[in-house]
Design a protein that fits this description.
single chain, about 180 residues, mainly alpha, two-stranded antiparallel ribbon, 5 helices
């Protein structure tokens, strides 16, 4: 027996009371990306522990950020009703804003770690190169957002959710003669 009454908004929407795994993964990946990025910056800072040389959080951060972008696209493309092209562009802008916000947060953490290290040693604040790999991963994620948006605007899933067959739509521009 289901404990959802017929007056419940979950019943009216046809949704289950528990979340689908595809709904939970993108949000939890964002939190994990932020935590790994912060721990990586703390690890790479001059005040961080230099004893663990094998730990490479740059690549883990980049992979998780890319996986988060792909999970968001997968979740949004499999939702019904299908998105229009203007909605897809708005979704891509929203996802890009989230990546920028994450990078700004990591930049602020990097600056605060450098300032606290400089204050404890009574030396001037010097810019560090620890943030550059995280910035490169963020730029890679932004490129992935643009590529996935272009591919999703060019290809449309036909048949139903999870069918996997793609249909290529020609653009309205005339073909070149030559």
């Amino acid at each position: 027996m289901s404990s959802i009454s017929s007056r419940s908004p979950l019943f009216a929407a046809g949704r289950k009371p528990y979340a689908n795994l595809a709904d939970v993964v993108p949000g939890s990946l964002e939190v994990l990306v932020a935590v790994v990025g912060g721990l990586g910056l703390i690890h790479d800072s001059p005040a961080g522990p230099a004893t663990v040389a094998w730990l490479n959080l740059h690549s883990l951060f980049g992979f998780l950020l890319w996986l988060s972008v792909v999970a968001h696209f997968h979740r949004r493309l499999n939702l019904l009703p299908r998105m229009r092209s203007s909605d897809m562009r708005a979704f891509a802008r929203h996802l890009s804003h989230r990546v920028y916000l994450l990078l700004y947060g990591l930049m602020l953490l990097n600056l605060s770690l450098s300032a606290s290290h400089a204050a404890s040693r009574a030396v001037p604040i010097v810019p560090t190169h620890y943030f550059q790999p995280y910035l490169a991963c963020g730029i890679f994620a932004l490129i992935a957002i643009h590529v996935l948006t272009a591919l999703s605007l060019r290809f449309v899933i036909r048949g139903g959710v999870g069918n996997g067959r793609l249909t290529y739509f020609e653009s309205a521009s005339p073909k070149r003669q030559g």
